[in-house]
UniProtKB/TrEMBL annotation:
Keywords: 4Fe-4S, Electron transport, Iron, Iron-sulfur, Metal-binding, Transport. This is Ferredoxin. Gene3D superfamilies: 3.30.70.20. It comes from the Bacteria. Pfam families: Fer4. Residues 1-29 form the 4Fe-4S ferredoxin-type domain. Its cofactor is [4Fe-4S] cluster. GO terms for molecular function: 4 iron, 4 sulfur cluster binding; metal ion binding.
Amino acid sequence: MSLTITEDCIYCDICRPACPNRAISAGDELYVINPNLCTECVGHYDEPQCQLVCPAECIPRLPEFAETKEQLWEKYERISVEIVS
C-alpha cells in the first residue's frame, strides 16, 4: 500500500466511507490508512476512491512503499476471505 494521508487532512470524513475495505479510520488529528487493509481499491474499483473524493487532495502515493497489482490483489483476496469467515 503506497497511499498515505498527509497533514493537509481537513478531517472531513469523506474518505472513510468511500473505502471499500474499511482501511481508513479517524486518528487524533487526521485520518489514517491501515496498510494491512488498503488494496488501493484493487478488487473493487480502477482507482483509489479515497483519492477521488478527498477535497483537500491530501492522499498521495508514496513510491517507496508501492505494491504491485498482484500483491494488492492477493491482499484483497485475503481480506475477502477474512470478511466472509
